[in-house]
Amino acid sequence: MSNPLEEVGHKWGMVIDQDLCTGCQACVTACAMENNIAFVGEQDAAYGRSLQWIRVERFWEGEFPEVKSTPFQPVLCQQCGQAPCEPVCPVYASVHSENQQINIQVYNRCVGTRYCANNCPYQARVFNWRDYREPGPLDNALNPDVTVRRRGIMEKCTFCVQRIVQGEDTARAEGRQMADGEVVPACAQACPTEAIVFGRLDDPDSLVSRLKRDGRAVQLLEELGTQPSVTYLKGGSSYGRNG
Amino acid sequence: MTEKLSRRDFLKLTAAGAGATAVLTGCGPASRYVVRSPYAEMPEYTYNGQSTFYATTCRECPAGCGIVVRTHQGRALKIEGNPSHPVNLGKTCSRGQAALQGLYNPDRVEAPQALAAGDRQEIDWDRAIRVVREALIGNRPEEIAFLLGPSPDHLYDLVSEIMRSLGGPAPLCYGTQALFEARATLVQATAQVLNRTALPFCDLGGSDVAFSFGANFLETWLSPLAYGRGFARMRRGQVGRRGFLVQFEPRLSQTGAAADEWIAVAPGTEGLVALALGRLVAEARGGLVPAAYREVDVATAAEASGVPEGTLTRLAGIFANAEHPLAVPGGAALGHVNGLEAARAVLTLNALAGNLGQPGGVFLTPVPNVHPDSRRGPDTLVEINALIGRMRSGQVKALFVHGINPAFELPAALGFTAALENVPQIISFASFPDETALLADYIFPDHTPLESWGYQKVRTGSDRAALSGAQPVVVPFHNTRATVDVLLAAIQAAGGDLAAGVPYSDEVDFLQQSLLTLVQEAGNIAAPEIRTFMTQFQQYGGWWAAEAGLDAPSTPAPLERPLRLIEPEFAGEGEFHLHVYPSPILGDGAGANRPWLQETPDPMTTVMWNTWVEINPETADELGLEDNDVVRVASDFGAIEAPVYRYPAIRRDTIAIPFGQGHTALGRYADGRGANPVALLGLKLTGAGDLAFAATRVRLEKTGRTSILARLESRIGVYGEGLE
Amino acid sequence: MAATAKPIAPATHEEHAESRQHLMLDPRPRGEMNAMVMESMHTTSWKFWGIAFLLGIVVLVCLFLAWGYMISEGLGVAGVNRPAYWGIFLVNTVFWIGISHAGTFVSALLRVFKAEFRRPFTRAAELMTTFGLIQAGLSIFMHMGRVWLSYWLAPYPNARGLWPNFHSPLAWDFLAINTYLLASTMYLFLPLIPDLAMARDRSTGWRKVVYRVLALGFRGTEGEWAHLRTAMNIFAFAILPVMFSVHTIVAWDFAAASRPGWSSTIFGPYFVVGALHSGVAAVAMVLVVVRGTMKNMKYFIRAEHFDAIGKLMLVISMGWAYFFFNDYLVQWYGGDHWTHTLLAWHESGPLAWIWGLMLVCNVAVPWFLLWNRKIRSRPGWMFVIGLLINVGMWCERYVIIPISLTINRMPFTWQSYRPGIEIVLGIGTLAFFILLYMLASRLVPLVPVWEVQEGQMAHSLRKFGRKTVVSVSELE
């Protein structure tokens, strides 16, 4: 128990550069494949019940022909430092992880009151409205590191905690510190333009920490004081601007 | 114990060699011959609870991206990019991610089948091989036709060799993916302007101002991951400046949305705009206007394209003052009768900018030296039409189809399905019961790509010559057999000259023989002989040159020839231009049976699981069309019905429909979903002989019905419905 | 309580006729009243059983079968979605908790303040509390994704080594509702004891057995009465804070959330007044039905009672309007973008008619009609007004829950809510409530005879000069 590495907690964070995001949805599909997210079918998808843990938002500005879509904005669980979803769960299914400084959803504790989802200002949580089972041999591709969720359970982005834990364990077993970029969640791994960057915020020299200090950095709904671990770099600049 | 340790060390070494994520096992090619065996008899390197990673090539589109598949106790779990692969450097797209749902699709063809009168009967492979043998030697060579898809290349190379040996016609290679990329037209334009029959590579990453004329390079065009990387470098990769991207197209694509400016040019006038910009750039730079632009009248171009002259002048100024300006031709801009000229005009703009072979400019990608004799140009619609003509007149006795679904992909106006009736024997190698397979006499299912051997030549997107390698990552899941193996077995059974001319024992043998030419070349693999080479080829996921390097075009002074553009012509009557674009998610429609791709929202409309018709909201108001109203879109060649999506960023004279849905087969997730817009396309051709797919006019009729589109976005929040 | 109220001798014939309109001034012998109540309990017709049977079918199909189907399929068969994670289930929960407030309010509060008009219908109101809470509990369980694990909300030593999260308003809710259910059941039971003893003495067969057990051997000695009075007094005072706290805590479920439109400091009292609004209106409706359908009830429940309840409804309606206006003004004045959007969505969105209906039913109808004493005294009118107020209050909760949930701070996710099986289940709970009430009306005396009697004994007419006034003597 005296191994100092055992006691080290990391603060994981993400930076999303909206100037680089092309809205290609690779993160969405990659996340679904990594995390055993079920598909819900056309009807439920049309009714706001799809289970994607990350969604790419875009709005419109202006009128034709000067119309443009706003920079794509992938929205996932912001892994708040002061998470509104945590205090409201009556059964401690939504809790804070000390080691990773992220917000954990404990599936087998969840009784499905959905209070956390109501209270999430980012609407980053999704609920299993039915048993969305993957039929036939499709379930061969299920990731054994991630629980499948039955009906009545809330779920959300975990920052691919299974990868974080595995990376931490590996580093510990090998008696070394983790390298920056050693662990990436599925979305950041897939992202073709590397708009999504993941790493340790407790390390001031990591890429995320450096990007977070960029002048373009903003956080979603900052005014609520949720202390998100996800930072956005504003996009949408015009010709001639530097930097 | 020592043995175990040494193996571990070996694994560590390979892991260190191949990059951070990819642990690549290789135990000599012989041990990776595909044998179907129960999970209880796992290969010895498969540990309980430990994943094994295999490098292979993604075949969801022909770009040839390298992937690493995580497998766990014989199951493929996750697809990740191959970090050392020169095309995608560890990145993946949605379609690549969902490839697992092809492998484990519940609606695969699980065994060879004979089809008769709607009845599908399982047969054994011996009989299947007899059928193929009979078809190959029982018909005269010119009565045999192979129709292949854009991948895999090793099959194309083998079939070419077989047909050469038989003395029959070379296999045809086609696909709507290539059609919507305007590959054939682009290649021909490149040949005319840059002097080589190849796809150009536009170094987006090195440019600071890029004008894209219809090229949807962040979605499906040529090599989306490579271009995505280039886009990122252009935007943020250069110190002190941010790249500027302008997109010229009638409908705002996802690429256009990521761009800084979108110019809604009239369909068919993209080339005209490129010419006008060229003249303005030349004038802005001062000096003599090159011969190419002397006949260009900017006012006429502005008038025809609907882009104000002021805008053209402003953009030309930006282009002229840029350090590394770049112009990219592609997509619908080339899908007009003047598409070839438009491509030339855009490529010439690069010559004017002086960026040919310069950083941030246009390059040509060297092709790896494998079967250099099998020149695989993208075939054009003219050649497909010729094949259909031969089929119709009964000159084709045996048709082999692999990797393409012509009954779905080809414009209905070509009459492919009707022509099939005059072909006595149709053999499909489809892994899925697609539209064409169900019209065939036999389905001899190939392995899905993740169970397959092979290679793909990288034609564009990488920074060096590269051959992307494929190997099975799992034991074949069903009783399928590699098409190459089936053909080779049939040829061996036939014996004679044919067997002597195609001297391969099986697929792996063919691959090894094909790779022989690469063993001596300087690349990522240093191996003295083919077996070691093959092992490393599998480990790395391919071969690529040691040094980065692309070819600079040798230009025969393109600026000296005057450029002219013919007037755009359109097939059929109607008040709207039809803009059909490949769905960025479903691609050429083969992705429609992957449920997760169906549920991945379209980037621009966020629609899932369906087809829609994009209409400018003002036009829709005039026609009294609301969201979700089902409209009948009719051209002179066909009609489809789909719900309306009031799309704010499309020209008022244009409607857009994504391609990919509308299957009448292909399993439960694709069948009966949406509509197929190729039914509408007329048969105008570009100067290169390919289909001018953007040159059809259509009419709209209300049907009075509504059908709710599944959107991720909120109509209340995004469009303010109910919140006036 | 062996004494009988003495007949009051009025001064004149006219005064006599007028004073007889008041139950308290129209006493009958104890034995006669007992017999009347017993008769009302025993009288059933084929209509009664027919309706009970139909309701039973509805409960079976709409409540139990439908719920079973929903449990096996998942909440997808209901209309909840993102972002309207809460729907009609919670609307019904809040609604039924509101109904349940009437019992306590009418009974305990009016008892504490010695409002005499309460006497004949405290029982009817208390029954509503208990039965309403049962529906509220059912509705909240329906709402849960994994109802079969709902016992995890209870604090008990368990294998998971986990207490409920006492930070969560839902954990407060769980405790508050349970406390309220327990307390209100006891509070229902205590005043019932003398009447159960009365019923025991006047029935035979299985009923006698049941009543004997339930009456706990009550014989009516002075000592027993003294104890009972003390207990009832304690409960009447103790249950009032529970009542206020329950609905306040229900309100905190919303007010404690970080959402536009919800985070309002006034939600607690606003919800309490709203609960009283619907609850008292429901009492009026029940009294109309009881009076119209049960034997001898016209003696106990009179125009004067409707008149009094009508006044109460009017006052509460004004209270509700005050809180509504207060809440609205502050939300609007705050100027928050999302709140403004939410208000616009309420007032001019596709479901604005619900918002309008709420204001009409909750404010306009009572304010315009209940001023009129004639309307207040007519059971038919009172039934309609009570029904409208309940519709209005249901709309209020619908506006607050699913309609407001559409609007959040992420406009990309806004989706309207379209109810599914909730409607069926809602009908099921309503039928269950009515069925329970019907059965109870034939099992327990709906009128607390002893309380009426007590009142009649305490009332007398006294002459002061030319005036005859009612005087009420303190019993204790």
Concise structural overview:
The complex is a heterotrimer of chains A (243), B (724) and C (476). A 4-stranded mixed β-sheet of chain A has the order 10-1-12-11. In chain A, strands 2-5 form a two-stranded antiparallel ribbon. With 243 residues, chain A is α+β, with helices and mostly antiparallel strands.
Structure description:
The complex is a heterotrimer of chains A (243), B (724) and C (476). Chain A is built from eight helices and twelve strands. Chain A has helices at residues 4-7, 26-34, 42-46, 85-88, 115-119, 161-173, 186-190, 207-212, and strands at 12-17, 55-57, 60-61, 68-69, 73-75, 94-97, 102-105, 126-127, 154-155, 196-200, 217-218, 230-233. Chain A has a four-stranded mixed beta sheet. Chain A has a two-stranded antiparallel sheet with strand order 2-5. In chain A, a hairpin with a 6-residue loop joins β3 (60-61) and β4. Among the domains of chain B are: 2-108 and 453-480 and 534-544, N-terminal domain of TfIIb, CATH 2.20.25; 179-364, 3-Layer(aba) Sandwich (Dimethylsulfoxide Reductase, domain 2), CATH 3.40.228; 576-719, Barwin-like endoglucanases. In chain B, α17 (435-439) links the parallel β15 (425-428) and β16. Chain B is globular. The model of chain B is unreliable at 1-32 and 34-38 (pLDDT under 50). In chain C, strands 1-2 form a two-stranded antiparallel sheet. Chain C is mostly helical and 476 residues long. Chain C has helices at residues 13-19, 30-42, 46-73, 88-112, 122-143, 169-189, 192-201, 205-215, 222-255, 267-293, 297-300, 303-334, 337-348, 352-369, 373-377, 379-406, 422-441, 449-458, and strands at 459-464, 467-472. Chain C has one domain (28-153, 173-472). Chain C contains 18 helices and two strands. The chains are: A alpha+beta (243), B alpha/beta (724), C mainly alpha (476). Chains in contact: A-B, A-C, B-C. At the A-B interface, α2, α3, β2, β4 and α7 of A face β3, α3, α8, α9 and α22 of B.
